[in-house]
Amino acid sequence: MSSVRHPRARAHLSGAGATRLSVHWSDRVGHVLLALAGLALAVLLLAPLAMILAKSVQDRAGDFVGLANFTQYFRTPALARSA
Question: Which of 17, 25, 20 is nearest to 5 (CA)?
């Protein structure tokens, strides 16, 4: 196993000869920005998906109808002919 180190990382001695690797502040900033980008991506994808799923179980007036919209769709004769 080779010991490859990050060029900006510094090893600190602590205790009985063990080394602890310190992380450069720019790496921490990069990790925070990456986490924020991942969170934004998740929110921007999941929020519209949740709204679509919520609307799929409502009628035109906004009342909850459950799976009635899906049963009506699957009972459409044109759907059976298209398959």
Answer: 20
Q: Tokens 């398959």 appear where?
A: 83
Q: Which residues contact 11 (CB under 8 A, 6 or more apart)?
A: 5, 19, 20, 21, 22
pLDDT digits (tens, 9 = 90+) for 40-57: 999 999 999 999 999 999
45-72 burial, b for 16+ CB within 10 Å, e for fewer?
eeeeeeeeeeeeeeeeeeeeeeeeeeee
- Burial classification of residue 3, based on how many CB atoms lie within 10 Å of its CB (0-12 exposed, 13-18 middle, 19 or more buried): exposed
For residue 29, what are the CA distances in angstroms to 25, 44, 48? 6, 22, 29
Structure tokens given for 59: 């009628």
CA distance 67 to 75: 12
- What is this structure's pTM? 0.58
